[in-house]
Amino acid sequence: IELERELGGALAAGQLRLVYQPVVDLQTEQVVGFEALLRWQHPTLGAIGPDRFVPVAEDSGHIVPIGRWVLAEATATAARWQRAHPRATPLSMAVNVSARQLAGGTLVEHVAEALASSGIAPSSLVLEVTETALVTDPDAVAERLTELRALGTRLALDDFGTGYSSLSYLRQFDVDVLKIDRSFVDLLDGSADDAAIVHGLVQLGRTLRLEVVAEGVETEAQRDRLRAERCDLAQGWLFAKPLEADEAELLLLAQA
Ligand code: G
Ligand code: G
Ligand code: MN
Ligand code: NA
Predict the structure, then answer these.
(1) CB burial readout 178-208, b (16+ within 10 A) else e
(2) Fewer CB within 10 Å of terminal CB in the chain, N or C?
(3) Predicted ipTM beyond 0.90
(4) In this protein, which residues make up the domain named EAL (predicted)?
């Protein structure tokens, strides 16, 4: 209850900010994009993680104005970085979208607004949804996703393999990107049978012609295995933790 009350004023008080985790191409190790992640710095409670406050924001409805701000901020940042660091394929920006946002009536409007004011190509915006968000209200979600697709944004299935869902959703919802959850990446340090799960997930994505991203890559051994499996992209502490915007810019400058 206290968090919920505090969250109401957090946005206006400038206590929310985005950090950006680089996404790298596994073959070249070049940064090809970022995932925007919310942070809340409360004046007395200190740093509150999204695992704690995003569920509160969802239940209270605060996620809608917060999500609108996240979309505006992340796309504005992407526009700035794309201009400063032009590439054949522009830097991508991934934004997490929760079940409540997806089911609500304003997400499409807020995405369109963010695209228009930032001017980025719609295809460089990746919306990350979890399997659980998809199954919460599949009919409403399917409609929203069709509208988002019409805008030209891409759709990523986040935390893939951990949700309560089935493979049929991959086709039904016309996903573009598969993000393999870090609990599976961790398995790469285990037995051959465990590693076979990652092999299967990467193959599934490749067969369906999806872009495959491995999350939570922490060791060189994991990176090497994923590269050998022809996984396309990766993020994780081995490459970089989520960075403040100015740190992320330095990284882009360093690889230019
Ligand atoms: O940054 P961290 O790994 O602590 O994020 C924890 C969780 O919070 C992740 O599951 C992530 O999807 C979620 N999260 C982070 N930023 C956002 C955001 O801007 N919007 C929503 N809806 N969820 C977010
Ligand atoms: O659910 P989602 O994938 O959106 O959440 C991303 C979260 O994973 C972020 O909170 C981020 O801080 C965390 N994260 C990113 N890279 C790593 C990593 O290499 N190891 C671990 N343990 N967590 C990571
Ligand atoms: Mn995510
Ligand atoms: Na994830």
Answers:
(1) bbbbbebbbbbeeeeeebebbeebbebbbee
(2) N
(3) yes
(4) 1-256
Task: Go through the domains of the chain in sequence order and give each one's CATH number.
Answer: 21-35+61-250 (3.20.20.450)
Q: Can you tell me which residue has the tokens 């590693």?
A: 195
Rounded CA-CA distance 144/45 in Å is 36
Q: Which atom of ligand 2 is nearest to the CA of 217?
A: 19
Mean pLDDT lowest among 45-59, 103-117, 128-142:
128-142
Distance 216 CA to ligand 2 centre (A): 6
Residue 164 has pLDDT above 90, yes or no: no
Q: How far is the CA of 181 from the centre of ligand 1 (A)?
A: 13
CB atoms within 10 A of CB 45: 13
Ligand 1 pocket residue status of 70, Cβ below 6 Å:
yes
Ligand 1: residue of 11, 17, 18, 37 to mutate (most ligand atoms within 8 A of CB) is 37
Does 130 sit in the ligand 1 pocket, CB within 6 Å? no
CB atoms within 10 A of CB 219: 15
Report, in angstroms and rounded to the nearest whole number, the Rg of the chain calculated over CA atoms: 18
Residue type, 244: E
Give the tens place of pLDDT for each residue, 171-194: 788 899 999 999 999 988 877 887
Which residue matches tokens 């004011």? 117
Structure confidence by residue, pLDDT tens digits, 27-44: 999 999 999 999 999 999
